[in-house]
Give the backbone structure.
Amino acid sequence: MSTESRPRVLVTGATGFLGPHVLSALAGTHAAVALCRRDPGDALGPDVEVRLGSLEDADSLAAAVEGCTAVIHAAGSVSHEARDAQQMWDVHVRGTERIVAAARDAGVRRFVHLSSSGTVWVSRRVGRVGTEETADVTQLISRWPYYRSKAIGEEAALASHEAGSFEVICLNPSLLLGPGDRPGGTSMATVGQFLDHGLPLVPGGTIAFVDVRDVADGVVRSLHRGRGGERYLLNAANWSWLSFYERVARVADAKPPTGVLPARPTRRVLRWLPGLGREEGLGLGSRISREELELASHHWGVDAQKARDELGWRARDPLETLADTVRDLSEPRWTGWVSPPQLGETP
């Protein structure tokens, strides 16, 4: 199929962690258009059309989406710090509103919105696993700027479906891991900082994670098989933080954690002592912030059965994802982030 005859799809966030994997998954079946703030050169490949613009500039978005039949909105920013609340709002709410408006005006037929599993489910109770039909978590996440902004941005996208503007499919992946993140990326910090600095005590909550390559596959599947107005959780594993870091340590031949900070008492201490670690961090391992510790003392486990049933989506073995994440961190671009001698073979 020639490039001219392929459906043209605009991808926002094309140079982030997920974006290049989405572009790779689209290759051969779609003509990909990448929205970029600056010219990426040849980094995205010869078959990707680059259109310069940003979520802050409505005119550039209108030009970027021209001629496209679908939009994959994967642009975003991650921070759990209160001081970044306005930035999270500007990117995830205002930015989403602008790209939705541009897509509507351009006559786009399908809009795939990348959100977060955290807008669907998080619990203070261990053992509970969320689905797309679980109780509303708005009240719980309202004090967390990142998840609050993601939830409201998601609502803005889905509102266009309700209004009949075009079909909107919302994908809600858990924490992305795998190869290809950038130095300083939040997803890679979960593994990279542990390998560099260790973590003797781990939080008592539950982590949910998924391979970035499998999320990219879910994105392409949703273009063809997703039902408009629906949300789809994408997740591979629900593990305690202790189990997660024990497996990372085994893959990397690193020292495993030695203990757990019980989730409920940790949350209480953070609530009773609002100034604890506010300025200098908590001094745990690689200086975890109080916001990160609070989040990691909750339980984020979710079930991706709906995506498996309706999209035909499957997640790879999570141990493969961990091995590839650790292996990726040994590459030269990570010098000073992870020490290669720590890296071992996959068990």
